[in-house]
Amino acid sequence: GVAGARGLLCLLSDRIDRDVLDAAGPGLKVISTLSVGFDHLALDEIKKRGIRVGYTPDVLTDATAELTVALLLSACRRLPEAAEQVRSGGWTTWKPLWMCGHGLSDSTVGIIGLGRIGQAVARRLKPFGVRKFLYTGSGPKPESAAEFGAEFVPLTRLAEESDFVVVTCALTPATQGVCNKDFFGRMKKTSVFVNTSRGAVVNQEDLYDALASGQIAAAGLDVTTPEPLPTDHPLLSLKNCVILPHIGSATYATRSTMAVLAANNLLAGLRGEPMPHELKL
Q1: pLDDT for the residue 147
Q2: What kind and span of H or E run contains 83?
């Protein structure tokens, strides 16, 4: 249905590759994606053809940061596991160490990718009494980091020193599979891993092994590979892994704002005008 289209409006679940671009034909001038991520777009091919791209950053930052904090708390304080105990009759009498988890107070939080969402997460975690923030990424961001007194460190040191690891980076060739066996092997046995960026940043087999063997305490994932995750996936058999169906931006207000922005990007692109949010290719 894309043949002859001048513009495309797509979701992050739509792979816009060479085949789609060929099918659309030479008249395609603009692609607008209802997402902040753009790893589903064949950017090299799009750039080669002179096609403009609109996306929806900023408007989903707060919603995604809120969800990241909720997921972190759910994993570290074992909320789904505890709720299941209430339903299944596992809640009997009070026991000193039953359902104990790990708290944020006086902890070290490591953030992989201190961009808009990473900063928004740090801003929300700071009042919980986090002692220290570490971050890693393509380079230091002293101005952004100053608000949290965050220290730029290599990935290996972030893994070794963090009580909580939060992944909020973009998926690029440099970040693909970066959270792997070596990474999890360096983490503390009491540490909690949270990913709300893209599933492919994580080697899921290595994460399963780390969780199943007790190498790390728990994980919370809002993103997986593939999506949706098959119901028989090994990660879903683990009590110490909380998995959500990619709902980072899922508030009514945010999704509505994203939709309007994506439509306005598309219309501006078709008119040959500056887009509200254009991806610089």
Answers
A1: 97
A2: helix 79-88
